[in-house]
Amino acid sequence: MPLQPAAPAASSEAANAPRRTDVVIIGAGLAGSVAASTLAQGGIDVVVIDAAAVVPPSLRAEKLGTPILALFDRLGLGETVRATATPISSVWIARFGRVMTRRTRREYAFAYKDLITALRAMLPKQVELRFGRVADIASGADIQRVTLSDGSVVEGRLLIVATGPGAAIHRRVGIDIVDAQRDHSICIGFYLKAPPAAFPFESIVYYGERWNDRVSYISLFPIGSRMRANLFVYRDHDEPWIQSLRSDPAETLRRTLPNLERICGPIEIEGNLDIRPIDLRQTQGHERAGVVLIGDAYCTSCPVSGTGMHKALIDVERLCREYVPAWFATPGMDADKVSAFYADTVKIEFDRSSLAISNRLRGLAVGRGARWRVSRVVANARSACAFTAHRCAHLAAVLAAPVTEFLERI
Fold first, then answer.
1. Residues 166, 170, 173, CA angle at the centre, nearest 5°?
2. I need a labelling partner for 18 at 20 to 30 A (CA). Which of 117, 154, 185, 244 fits?
3. Which helix (H) or strand (E) holds 86?
4. Element of type H or E holding 46
5. Segment 37-59, tens digit of pLDDT
6. Are 203 and 221 in contact (CB under 8 A)?
7. Could you tell me which of 276, 280, 285 has the C-alpha nearest to residue 296?
8. What is the largest CA-CA distance in the chain?
9. Sheet holding 269-284, edge to edge
């Protein structure tokens, strides 16, 4: 059964007593904030701990589609996302330096900092949000005890770690992080000087022109009144190309994607580049009593795949809607209970699919050997067929327009 919060303090000794709750969440980012909101909606007492009272700027998820928004809707936070994000209704897809197709596709773009700030503001009133650094964690089958650097203590039946791939909290509970692949990709974000109205498209996904450029794609899309760009490359963080990009980003981009400006117009960068190397990381020894990892704290994904936010929300929905209420129906929080979440078939399948997409996209861009050469040929043939079909349909529409107009007149 859930723990009951401690009674109001009546003495200095009581005032220094641990804050008792049902669930302690470390990390008030995407996964932690949504988990706290979901649990509180189910009547579970939650304390969330985060080191930063003000959400810092961070190059993370900046765009989502309707499947992820549907998940937010199911978790009761869809309207918060809609109010924070810029809606996008169409996207151009460009390959081989030319526009292949124009699609109608609903997406939502946002600054990660703004989204997390909004999610924190929408936390139910019964959720307590504390700010401070974690000094110590004692975990076990009954009570999880978190001590902050100011000496305050929070105790709960379950500890949820939602801190991303950082290792500090993992070490405190005896969980190891393993780099499955270092420098898997690099994500680069920046704003453009020209406003969204200056571009011939609402948004565009422009794929690398040559496979040995080691570019997956660059995406341009509006966030409010500004045009944002996300560039994804498969390079090492310390190689000369990255140094060149830092010193002269516009010229380096022109050399790497020589036909980009022919479609988009002049690319002038405003402000600094955000550069984030991506390592694929997994955890070991995570099936521990009283502690559960969600989102990137459990395993990371490559942002090129576009599955990171979806994966985190799947974790939250499965854990907070299915497992935590069932766990609280019986005493204790042993490792067998926690292991059931990691063995969830929906979670396992999505994690597996996310990793497979990440590896496939990297292989198509930079993979060597017969397998990847054949895969690139097939992918290019499909793109060429799609382009031909798109142009034929466009030509047919142009030719049919006068005939249709004539028939309407008679």
1. 160
2. 117
3. strand 86-95
4. strand 46-50
5. 999 999 999 999 999 999 998 88
6. yes
7. 280
8. 93
9. 63-65, 98-109, 86-95, 204-207, 215-223, 226-233, 176-192, 269-284
Answering whether pTM is above 0.90, one says: no
Which amino acid is present at 275?
Answer: I
Residues 6+ apart with CB under 8 A from 361: 216, 302, 304, 305
Cβ-based burial of 203 (10 A; exposed 0-12, middle 13-18, buried ≥19): buried
Q: Do 177 and 283 form a contact (C-beta atoms < 8 A)?
A: yes
Burial (CB < 10 A; 0-12, 13-18, 19+), residue 368, is exposed
Cα–Cα distance list, 409 to 229, 396, 403 (Å): 47, 20, 10
State the average pLDDT for the chain.
89
Tokens 């190309």 belong to residue: 241
Q: Residue 339 contacts by C-beta under 8 Å, 6 or more apart in sequence?
A: 287
Query: Dihedral angle at the C-alpha atoms of 388, 390, 391, 394, nearest 10 degrees?
Result: 160
